[in-house]
Each structure stands twice: as C-alpha cells, then as structure tokens.
C-alpha cells in the first residue's frame, strides 16, 4: 500500500500543469508571450494549444485602439463559460490592458483571476499561486530596468526560420495619440551581449532570420563605464554572426533615423533592404498635433537618403487617418505623400481616442466616424494600387528568397520573403524551409509576388 501511495505522490509532483496563451496586438506582445512561456516553464507549466485542456489561460492584450480592447473583452466573456464546466481554471489578463485598466478589470470582467502588466512577468508564478488560493492577484508595477535579458524565450509558435528578439522596452516619445508610453513605461535597452548570444544560439538551431524589436529601435543605447553601444553597432554585431543570417528590425521612428544606420544597411549585405518607417500623416499641422517631432520635409529627406543609398529598398509605413482637427487638405497631403514615397506596404488605421493620452485630454476627436471611414477607404484603395504598381515593377527581376514554409494556398508551392519583405510564392521543386533560393518573378497580385526558382 505504502508503495502505491509513494508512486502516486511521485506522479503528482512531476506532473506538469497545462498553460494556454492567447496573444493580441503587436510583434512585441508576441515576443513577450515567448518570454512568458519560458518563465512559466521554469514553474513547471507546459504549453497546450487547446484552451479547454488548460489549467491556466493567459490572454496577452493590446490597448492601442479601442477595438483591440473590445475584442479581448468579447473573448473573456466566451472564456467565462468554460469556468462553469471547469471551475478550477485560472484566467490571467496580461499586457497593456492590464497596465491601463488595473484592478478596475476585476470589477468589469468576472472571468479574470489575475492581472499582470508588461514588466511583471517574472512574478507570474507567485501571482498564480495567490490566484489558486482563491485571491484576485495583481501586479502592474512598471520597471525602469526590466528587459528579461537572461531568459531563453520559448519559440512555441515559430516556423523555425524567423525569430523576434526584443532589444529594448518602453517608449518615451509620447506621441499625443498613443497609449504605449503609459502601458509600457520608460524606454530601456537590453544588454547587447545577451542579444548577440541569443541570436547566435538561434542561428545554431537553424533559424535564418532575426527581427530585432523595440518601440523605437533607433534610440537603442547601452552604456557601460567606457563605451556607448548604439543601434547601428548592435545590428552590425548581430549581422556578423553569419552571412547566412538575415537581420530585420522594427520599428524605426523617423526623427531618429540616422545616416549611420542607413550606411550600415547599405554596406551590410545580410541586413535586409527594408525599412518600416511609420509616417502617421502627410500633413505638417497634424504631425505637430501628434507630437511626432518631424515634419514632412524631414521625413521626405530620410526617404531620399534611403533610396539614394539603397536603391532597391522596400519601404512600409503606418498611417492614422481622422486624427483630431484633420481637414480634407490634411488628408489630401497624406495621399500625396503616399504617392511621393511609393510605399510597398502600409498598416492603416482610423484614429481611436485613448484615455490618458494628450490627445484625449486636450484635443477634440472631431472628425466624424463616417468621414474617418471614407478617408480610411481612400487610403487603403491608394495603397493597394501602390502595392500592385510596386509588385508589377518587380516582374522580370530575380530575388534571393528565404523560404519560410509551404504555401498556404498550394502544397506544391513554397512561400518566403525577399529582402524587401515581399512575400514570394514559387513551385517547390525539392527546396525546403530555411533555404535561400533565387527566384525570378513572373507574376503578382497586390499582396504577393509569384515566380520560378532559377
Ligand atoms: N489610434 C489609431 N492608431 C493608433 N496607432 C497608435 N495609436 C493609435 C490610436 N490611438 C497606430 C500607429 C502606430 C501603430 C502601431 O498603431 O500608426 O504606428
Ligand atoms: Fe506610440 Fe509614438 Fe512610442 Fe510609437 S513612438 S509607441 S506611436 S508613443
């Protein structure tokens, strides 16, 4: 009998609990979820892809626009039902919504047992322990130091080829519309040695593309007693790991895009010839109201220098339409700037007023919803035409494509990206993910290039 009891004890103490993570929002959140998975693995939680099997469900949330929060609230109400069947399951709300709404969430969303802000993930096992004892647990303290630098992220949803490495956290730019400085706190950079080490390990494990992440990578700075290590130096060091490792980065703030970075991009073959450079608006009064700290002339100068030094560069952007006070003239200036740059790709949004921001406090969200919609449609229509035009211009050219996976639409085709970050689909012919294949472009849609391996 004793024998059986002790066996049972061993089984119970080695049994891992099941954790399900659902992520909303930006690349930074997806990267954070990989860190959360690592912290929870140390606390003996293993990941499941089925939330119905989970002992713990974490929702990693985004506050950037109101509809991002609404999606999460809707999801929480769905999850409330599984608590009826499985009362033991604990639900944690993590990330920007946790930071923004704090304990208020416990009153508004019955499903939540635990809330944790973006700088408190190391505290998750303790918070969970409290939640398991029946308490509502919260930690929303923002840190000036936390960069999760010594953790080995678990790449649980990865294609095995491309990986994010977060190199800095927080933002202090205070664009007047943006909630991020309030939810992610002060800007801080991560120790470069740990970044380079992580990238080298990923390369050894078969990864072929690293995306260095931060809210504003151009202001990356690491200081020790003697030296100052900047972003161009960091990216150069990561690129030296191997010429077979592609390096990308996001996001760059136009005000900090230095000639030094453009030089490094132009002169380092494995730093991809692509930049994501959010413009937000093409109109000077709106850029000023947004507190973007550059004007149209400055932005166009950065584009000119980029194109001059890297003639085949791919350029993408973010645009917000319908910001406070935006007139038809302002909107037309945005359309004109889009044409002047000739973006290859854009993320386009309607302005969403966020409590706590400068725009919320002191400006008037005065562009009617119908006008915001019309302007957004016009911007999306123009971008589609620009993307198609840019893709058509690629027909006949050949690109080195890093293969990522089998194409979603056809198992006889592979899908990858060229340096410019365009998706390229081509017949498989024995190539495998992780390979670099030279592909000649023979056709396109506005979203994809089609070609043949040469
Ligand atoms: N409303 C709409 N879009 C926003 N963004 C940030 N804040 C808002 C907001 N309040 C957009 C910006 C940013 C991208 C990540 O989200 O374009 O670059
Ligand atoms: Fe928000 Fe501006 Fe910081 Fe980007 S740079 S996260 S838009 S405040």
Structural notes for this entry:
The protein is an alpha/beta fold and 454 residues long. Helix content is 37%, strand content 23%. It has 15 helices and 21 strands. The protein has helices spanning 2-14, 27-42, 66-85, 96-101, 104-108, 124-132, 180-184, 192-204, 231-239, 259-267, 284-289, 296-309, 328-341, 358-362, 369-392, and strands at 17-23, 45-47, 56-61, 90-95, 114-116, 137-139, 162-166, 168-169, 188-189, 209-213, 221-223, 228-230, 246-250, 274-276, 314-321, 345-350, 398-406, 413-417, 423-427, 436-444, 448-453. The chain has a 6-stranded parallel sheet with strand order 2-1-3-4-5-6, sandwiched between helices. Helix 2 links the parallel strand 1 and strand 2 (45-47). Helix 13 (328-341) packs parallel to helix 15 (369-392). The protein starts with a helix and ends with a strand. Bound molecules: 5'-deoxyadenosine and iron/sulfur cluster. Residues 171, 173-175, 178, 180-181, 215-216, 253 line the site of iron/sulfur cluster.
């Amino acid at each position: 009998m004793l024998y059986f009891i002790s066996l049972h004890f061993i089984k119970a103490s080695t049994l891992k609990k099941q954790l399900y993570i659902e992520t909303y929002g930006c690349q930074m959140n997806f990267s954070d979820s990989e860190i959360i998975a690592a912290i929870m693995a140390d606390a003996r939680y293993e990941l499941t892809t089925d939330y119905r099997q989970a002992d713990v469900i974490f929702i990693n949330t985004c506050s950037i626009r109101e509809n991002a929060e609404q999606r999460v609230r809707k999801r929480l109400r769905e999850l409330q039902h599984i608590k009826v069947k499985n009362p033991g399951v604990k639900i944690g709300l993590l990330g920007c919504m946790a930071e923004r709404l704090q304990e208020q969430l416990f009153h508004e969303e019955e499903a939540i047992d635990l809330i944790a802000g973006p700088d408190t993930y190391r505290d998750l096992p303790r918070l969970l322990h409290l939640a398991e004892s029946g308490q509502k647990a919260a930690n929303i303290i923002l840190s000036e130091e936390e960069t999760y630098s010594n953790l080995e992220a678990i790449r649980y949803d990865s294609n095995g080829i491309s990986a994010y490495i977060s190199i800095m956290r927080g933002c202090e730019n205070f664009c007047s519309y943006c909630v991020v400085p309030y939810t992610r706190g002060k800007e801080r950079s991560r120790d470069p040695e740990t970044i380079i080490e992580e990238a080298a390990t990923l390369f050894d494990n078969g990864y072929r593309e690293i995306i260095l992440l931060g809210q504003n990578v151009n202001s990356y700075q690491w200081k020790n007693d003697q030296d100052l290590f900047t972003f161009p130096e960091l990216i150069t060091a990561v690129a030296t790991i191997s010429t077979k490792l592609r390096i990308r980065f996001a996001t760059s703030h136009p005000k900090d895009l230095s000639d030094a970075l453009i030089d490094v991009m132009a002169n380092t073959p494995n730093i991809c010839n692509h930049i994501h450079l959010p413009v937000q608006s093409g109109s000077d009064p709106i850029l000023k109201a947004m507190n973007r700290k550059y004007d149209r002339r400055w932005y166009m100068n950065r584009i000119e220098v980029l194109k001059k030094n890297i003639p085949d560069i791919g350029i993408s952007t973010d645009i917000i339409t319908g910001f406070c006070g935006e007139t038809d003239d302002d909107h037309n200036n945005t359309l004109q700037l889009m044409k002047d740059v000739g973006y290859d790709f854009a993320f386009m949004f309607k302005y969403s007023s966020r409590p706590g921001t400068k725009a919320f406090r002191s400006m008037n969200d005065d562009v009617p919803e119908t006008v915001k919609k019309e302007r957004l449609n016009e911007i999306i229509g123009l971008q589609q035409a620009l993307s198609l035009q840019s893709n058509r211009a690629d027909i006949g050219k050949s690109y080195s494509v890093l293969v990522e996976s089998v194409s979603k639409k056809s198992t006889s085709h592979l899908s990858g990206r060229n340096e410019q970050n365009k998706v390229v689909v081509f017949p498989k012919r024995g190539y495998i993910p992780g390979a670099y294949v030279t592909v000649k472009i023979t056709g396109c849609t506005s979203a994809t290039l089609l070609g043949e391996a040469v």
